[in-house]
Design goal:
The protein is α+β, with helices and mostly antiparallel strands and about 120 residues long. About 15% of the residues lie in helices and about 50% in strands. It contains 1 helix and 8 strands; from the N terminus they run αββββββββ.
Amino acid sequence: MSFDMKKLTPKWIAIGVGVLVVIVVAVVMAMPKHLSGSYSHTTDLLFVKATDTLKFDGSTVTEYADGEKTNTGTYTLKGDQLEIKVGDYSMTATVSDDKKSFTVQHADGLADLARGMKYSLDK
């Protein structure tokens, strides 16, 4: 079965391009712009174990230290870059492709001690 190039009219080319544009826009629009759920990191230091949890809901984030609410704030997600503003500090992190974890890249002040820490989605 061969394809006859003479049947490929400008009308069919325009229809094909239009369908392709609609598909690309639909895929981009369907990509999640927010995180959802709780992500936690547990630190063991000498005889002390501490768990920091960030709960994402819509465009807000709430921080819990060992289950106790400590701060609230906002965040933005652009591609794999997560920017969080909670309380008096800001933090940037890189989100994994499957969005089941993120790793802190930088934070303000003492919060920068979290650099390199990986937060994982709670089950």
